[in-house]
Amino acid sequence: xxxxxxxxxxxxxxxxxxxxxxxxxxxxxxxxxxxxxxxxxxxxxxxxxxxxxxxxxxxxxxxxxxxxxxxxxxxxxxxxxxxxxxxxxxxxxxxxxxxxxxxxxxxxxxxxxxxxxxxxxxxxxxxxxxxxxxxxxxxxxxxxxxxxxxxxxxxxxxxxxxxxxxxxx
Amino acid sequence: xxxxxxxxxxxxxxxxxxxxxxxxxxxxxxxxxxxxxxxxxxxxxxxxxxxxxxxxxxxxxxxxxxxxxxxxxxxxxxxxxxxxxxxxxxxxxxxxxxxxxxxxxxxxxxxxxxxxxxxxxxxxxxxxxxxxxxxxxxxxxxxxxxxxxxxxxxxxxxxxxxxxxxxxxxxxxxxxxxxxxxxxxxxxxxxxxxxxxxxxxxxxxxxxxxxxxxxxxxxxxxxxxxxxxxxxxxxxxxxxxxxxxxxxxxxxxxxxxxxxxxxxxxxxxxxxxxxxxxxxxxxxxxxxxxxxxxxxxxxxxxxxxxxxxxxxxxxxxxxxxxxxxxxxxxxxxxxxxxxxxxxxxxxxxxxxxxxxxxxxxxxx
Lengths: 169, 364
Known about the structure:
heterodimer; A: 169 residues; Butyryl-CoA Dehydrogenase, subunit A, domain 3; elongated; B: alpha+beta; 28 strands; globular
């Protein structure tokens, strides 16, 4: 679970000054949600690990320039979700290659049906559902994160939910 | 969905924390003055480069830039190397060995060349032949194969292997020219042997980087990677560096991403290399009409200049970095601690054309 805004600003400040333990606190607070978000979009645990890890490596590179007044989570989630969408699109374009190299997607122990139906959505629709219902961003925040018009976010949410409702009924 | 837990979450967290922590610990915190001075310096350099291009007076700007980075006093020829060892260079002017005292021997008209593991022989390619030569240029054996490229030689004093590309396939042959066999399809990228025990070979396919075990004759690792241009192992054989169109990535033996570098829009990573004996990486980054060599994740600029830098090659003792600078027709040798810069000019005049450095071999 992410820390309070004050905790987080302190972690970022001390991590910028070189404190490994504060950087670790930042990592622990955000890893789970970043990995889950990536997994739900790409449905491949190895790829999700790579994507979440790449996002944290980007955070390391940008740490000195990071504006401490801004929350860390949305900045990280923007990277995670955009890379996950790119990865899922690329996989859709070369399904044969993936069949050879990628391990079969692992199934979680519960909510199988919901997750299977989520997989039928396009990566773009999956991403807005994940941002809204896993990471709990508002449609306005999602629009800002993905640099999309608010109406597009709303329509993707609506279509995604309609699809899930129809299939799960 | 709030309560959802993805499979493998805690194991992935443990693995990733190791990688992220290593990247964090190798970064160099930027002080406030440096953080704010950098854009000003960058702006001044860009302005200087633009001035150089746009006005005749700008030549003096280039001159002053070169003076600032220390190559104004470049030797008028390559009189000697700043460290022990021998360079193997190749290009349209042929394949040459350059010794530490500056003496050169032309081996012949070969396209690519590589030292044997102890620097006694050279594997080279020419037309439809893979050739093994001694240091006098005498041919020891040849192997007829379609348009061979990029030989890479590894092994001990008694048992060696040469990997090379031919007809879009990776092939491996013993150091005496026997037992040649095909591994599989490969992109036109120089394969790289891992240092140390176990004959592992990294090679590229158009959308993959593959680590192949020659002893097991099986792929050890397959990693998705579009358009790899260069592969290099760290000295301890634990990390593999891959340069591609979207920057540099460093993978562990299990395929886990160890570190990466995405150049900003408008910039491209031309070449990269491990700092010898470490997991740190230096990279050539070209932006518009300027190039610079910097240490990744430390944002430390080692050298910068106008035009194109092509290659980074470390001396066998790891103390000198050769930067190939075709725009200036120079080689620049940079010593980090203490900082020294030695330039050698008119490189293409000495080798018939501006050459590519195949390797800087052998401490003594």
